[in-house]
Structure formats: structure tokens, C-alpha cells
Design a protein that fits this description.
Elements: H1 2-7, E1 25-31, H2 50-58, E2 60-66, H3 72-81, H4 85-88, E3 106-107, H5 122-128, E4 132-137, E5 155-157, H6 198-212, E6 218-223, H7 235-244, H8 254-276, E7 283-289, H9 319-322, E8 323-329, E9 338-340, E10 344-345, H10 349-356, H11 360-365, H12 376-380, E11 390-395, E12 405-410, E13 413-418, E14 423-428, H13 444-461, E15 467-468, H14 470-474
Parallel strand pairs: 1-6, 1-7, 2-9, 2-10, 4-5, 4-6
Antiparallel strand pairs: 2-8, 3-15, 7-8, 11-12, 12-13, 13-14
The chain binds calcium ion (CA).
Calcium ion (CA) binds next to loops.
Length: 475
């Protein structure tokens, strides 16, 4: 607890705000690389997630929520700022921001490595309003000058420049996985002992923050590293899940299933703590992922997961790469046990949190121009409508399952534009969720309209584009 006490000078100043109902706590829990079907309540036939399933019964479960990007850093930047990664020029994970992939047909743009100080974050909004603000776990938004402390967080534990730990097991450091980049570590895990597991230990810190907040409103940005690689579940759990995999089971990775179990258990511990402190009715809980499930292999061996019935996974702009679980419990205001099928995105979280905490006017007064919109009305009326009609995606990069691509979701239509061959693909998601039938030729007028909208939006964002690689042309 000593670390937190030293790191948190702002606490006494807000003591008088106490139990003011206009200041609900915000508990935002972000899982890493958790696919759309990764939870029991989203249809996994192997992973067991009773606490998250219960949270869904107590809140609104979004069935068409999107990550603003198909990889980590850009989506996390969108959550913090309410701005689109294309506008931020943060469209790739941090470690690859300057990697132009010079052996490919197109050169990727050089991106920003750091979330600049000029951007207004959700933590700054809440810190200015008197909240105790704490970031725990994965950060991945820049070098030390741009760590959480520089973006509105009173407390920061467990996050730094990197997107994954070397291991989930104590001491969480080493150079085994990322030999090219050198030694990695997870800072602030001081009371961890041999045999400890990172997901559990981050939760220990979260419980301390909730206790430490006392009567002050808190914003806890709890970013678990799991279920990202390394795929390391607890052996006894992995053994159990191995026994549950049958011939027809869709999800088939027992260690990955064990990681979901640890995630769920730890979400349960945090929610139990909130309840034990009597804060359940004034704590808004938001649970989500930052991109789709990773469909590659771990250490050249077993496939990590699939996002069936969605096509592809992390890295791709097909639905498997960007559609994510999102559950929001808003005590006293939001519906319980409801589903919402309105398309929403991680860029919406900042304005939504602002509205739910009564700070929406603050954004207006300061004339903050955001790319996201508040979706708080959908929590009250999940069958309602938003004024926004379209969602956009921009990934001008390569990954094992994609070449540079942008996309627009408009109503039931989804159009993807691939830069290498200027190919467009058009899908009707209502009729073809798995994106198997490209109807861009049959529906050429719709494809043309959506292409024009996408081009206009990219221009408005001042987006960075991939360029032809002259070296590749010579080959
Ligand atoms: Ca991720």
C-alpha cells in the first residue's frame, strides 16, 4: 500500500465530494485480444466465464461493438481520447510504429509512437472533476514521458512501453520472447513472489486502489494483459479444459481457456470488492476488449483461437478482427440483462463516461471535438437509435492475415478497400455475418457510394496512407 500512498497526493482535496450521486465510480476493465465469442455469454463452447456472464445479466451486452482498430495501441488511444486512431496517426502497435515493412509491395506510413500530451484523456476529465484516477496493467501508449502519470492518472502500476509481458509467471520479466527488443519487465509488482500469476497480482493492486479511494469517487482503468500471448494458463485449469474439448468443440486451446478463467475469476474478485465496500450502486462497470482474438499459432504450435462465425481475427478488418465484447452495468439508470445491437465503438467511451458522470457539459464548454459520441442513451433504451450512421476503420499496415486496408460499416453494409490492388469488397452483415459473399459487383452503386464516403472520411481525418514500394516494383 505504501506505493499508492506516496503516488497519490490528490486524494484529500476531493474528500468533501463523498457519496454525491452525480459522481459515480468508473470501473473500466479492458481485456487484451479477447475475441467476440471468447466469453460464455458471447457463445464460447469451451471458455467458462460465470462472473462476466453475471455482469451481462446485470447490464447491457452489446452485440455489435467494435474496437476502433484491429490491434492494441490504436484502440487504447481511442479509449483514452475519444479520437479515431486515423486522426491520431497511431494506427499500429507501438513497437512497430516506425517499421515500414520494406520487403512488402507497399511501404507503411511512419506512425506516432507516443500519445502526445496535447490530447485530452478520459483520466484528465475525471481527475479534474475530483476523481482518484488509477491505471493498472497494460498501457502501450508511448515511452516514459507519455506514461499514465503524464495523461491524468494519479496512480500507475504495471504498465509501460510494451504490449505484453515476457511471461505471466513471476517475475514477469526476461528476454525470451522478445529477443530482438531485449529485456522486458512489468513495473510495480513489488510484493509478488515466485509462483504468482500476473492476472491475480494486478487484481491485488486493483483491490487496494478500491480500498484506498475511501469515500472519494474513483476511476479505475484496469487493463489486464491477458488473454494476449504468451499463452500461459494455470496448469491445473488447462488440464481441466483439455478434458472438456471434444471433437465438435469450436474453441480448442486449453491454456487459452484457462487464461479466460483467470480473467473471469479476477473480474469476480474486483466486483466482489466493490460490493463489499457498499459501492455497487454507485459504480459503473465497463468491460471490453481492444481487438479480436488472435488466430495465429503460439510458438509455432497450436492455434490460439478462432472468432467463428466471424471471419478472421486480430490484424484484419473483417469482423473477427474488430468486433468485440462490450458489457456496461450502469446502476440505477441502465437496463439489466438487455442486449443492444446498435453498432458502437471504443471511440465512444470517453463521451459516454462524460455523460454518465454528469461531465458532458464540460466537454461542450471546453469545445472538445471528439470522433466518438455518447452511447449512454442505449444503456437506458437498448433498442434506441444513434444519430451516427457509419463507423470507419483504417489499418494502413500489414499483419499475417492482411495487407493495408480501410473499411466502412454503414447500416448492414460493410465495405473494405485494400490498397495493394485497390480492390473493394462489399458484404451485407445482416445476411452474411461471416463475410463470405462479396457483392461489390452486384451492388456496384452501393459500393460506389460507400467508397466515396470512406475516401471523404479519410481525407477529413488527414489519415496516413501506405505508398507503393519502388523496390518491390523492381523485383
Ligand atoms: Ca490487443
Amino acid at each position: 500500500m505504501a506505493t499508492i500512498l506516496l503516488a497519490c497526493p490528490a486524494v484529500t482535496a476531493v474528500a468533501e465530494e463523498k457519496t454525491d450521486s452525480r459522481n459515480p465510480n468508473i470501473l473500466m476493465i479492458l481485456a487484451d485480444d479477447l475475441g467476440w465469442t471468447g466469453l460464455g455469454c458471447y457463445g464460447s463452447d469451451l471458455h467458462e466465464t460465470p462472473n462476466l456472464d453475471q455482469l451481462a445479466r446485470e447490464g447491457v451486452r452489446f452485440t455489435q461493438a467494435y474496437a476502433a482498430s484491429t490491434v492494441c495501441t490504436p484502440t487504447r488511444a481511442s479509449i483514452q481520447t475519444g479520437l479515431h486512431p486515423a486522426r491520431l496517426h497511431m494506427t499500429i502497435w507501438r513497437e512497430s510504429a516506425k517499421n515500414r515493412n520494406e520487403n512488402k509491395p507497399m511501404l507503411e506510413p511512419e506512425c506516432e509512437e507516443d500519445l502526445k500530451h496535447e490530447y485530452f484523456t478520459v483520466a484528465e476529465l475525471l481527475q479534474e472533476a475530483g476523481y482518484l484516477t488509477a491505471h493498472l496493467g497494460k498501457w502501450h501508449l508511448g515511452s516514459s514521458k507519455f506514461f499514465p502519470e503524464a495523461h491524468g492518472y494519479d496512480i500507475s502500476i504495471g504498465g509501460n512501453i510494451w504490449g505484453a509481458p515476457d511471461s505471466f509467471w513471476h517475475p514477469y520479466r526476461g528476454a525470451e520472447r522478445f529477443a530482438k527488443e531485449g529485456f522486458r519487465y512489468v513495473p510495480g509488482m513489488d510484493d509478488s513472489r515466485p509462483g504468482d500469476y500476473l492476472t491475480d497480482k494486478l487484481t491485488d493492486e486493483a483491490l487496494r486502489v478500491i480500498e484506498f479511494a475511501g469515500e472519494d469517487p474513483f476511476f479505475l482503468n484496469l487493463c489486464y494483459y491477458t488473454v494476449h500471448t504468451p499463452i500461459e494458463g494455470k496448469p491445473e485449469d488447462a488440464e481441466y479444459f483439455e478434458s472438456q474439448i471434444g471433437e465438435e468443440t469450436s474453441h480448442r486451446n486449453s491454456h487459452y481457456a484457462a487464461m479466460h478463467k483467470s480473467l473471469d475469476e479476477n473480474v469476480g474478485r474486483v466486483l466482489k470488492k466493490v460490493k463489499a465496500r457498499g459501492l455497487e450502486n454507485r459504480t459503473i462497470v465497463i468491460f471490453l476488449s481492444d481487438n479480436g482474438g488472435y488466430t495465429g499459432k503460439w510458438k509455432g504450435g497450436q492455434v490460439v483461437t478462432n472468432n467463428d462465425p466471424l471471419r478472421s481475427g486480430k490484424g484484419s478488418l473483417y469482423e473477427g478482427g474488430v468486433r468485440i465484447p462490450l458489457i456496461v452495468r450502469w446502476p440505477g439508470k441502465g437496463r439489466a440483462g438487455a442486449e443492444c445491437a446498435v453498432p458502437v465503438t471504443t471511440t465512444d467511451l470517453l463521451p459516454t463516461i462524460a455523460e454518465m458522470t454528469g461531465l458532458g457539459e464540460r466537454l461542450k464548454v471546453e469545445d472538445r471535438k471528439l470522433d466518438g459520441i455518447s452511447i449512454a442513451s442505449l444503456l437506458v433504451e437498448p433498442t434506441g437509435l444513434l444519430q451516427r450512421k457509419d463507423l470507419y476503420f483504417h489499418y494502413p499496415h500489414y499483419y499475417s492475415n492482411t495487407s493495408p486496408v480501410s473499411a466502412i460499416r454503414s447500416g448492414d453494409w460493410k465495405l473494405l478497400h485494400y490498397y495493394e490492388d485497390r480492390r473493394v469488397e462489399l458484404y451485407n452483415l445482416a445476411a452474411d455475418l461471416s463475410e463470405t459473399k462479396d457483392v461489390s459487383k452486384e451492388k456496384s452503386e452501393i459500393a460506389k457510394q460507400l467508397s466515396a464516403k470512406l475516401a471523404s472520411w479519410l481525407n477529413q481525418m488527414r489519415a496516413q496512407f501506405p505508398q507503393r514500394n519502388p523496390k518491390a516494383r523492381e523485383k
